[in-house]
Amino acid sequence: MSSGVEHHDPRACDGALAKAFTFLGKRWNGVILATLMSGPATFSGLRRSVGSISDSVLSDRLVELAGAGLVTREVCEGPPVSVTYQLTEAGQSLMPVLDELADWARTHLTLQ
């Protein structure tokens, strides 16, 4: 007879943590968020800062990050017209976690 209580295998990864790593582990998402830690940036500024990302992939990732509520997009009427991206409050709240993860990586991972 079932008690109605779900039993969780203690060795199984927490579902929320798995979801976070799936999202943040998607190529470029974490890097874009970390780049925006220092403040708002234009599309071209992000492209230069991030490196070898294509315009279409950067655009897709920014749409995804905005859809998740981590980044806002503001069109600045020109001339010339430009678009600025910045972290939302939810995005800002992720920064201490990314800082801790970076500290851990510096200490425990051999970076090349």
TrEMBL record:
Coiled coil: none annotated. Pfam families: HxlR (PF01638). GO terms for molecular function: DNA binding. InterPro entries: HTH_HxlR (IPR002577), WH-like_DNA-bd_sf (IPR036388), WH_DNA-bd_sf (IPR036390). Residues 13-112 form the HTH hxlR-type domain. Keywords: DNA-binding, Transcription, Transcription regulation. PROSITE patterns: HTH_HXLR. Signal peptide: none annotated. This is Transcriptional regulator, HxlR family. It comes from Rhodococcus wratislaviensis.
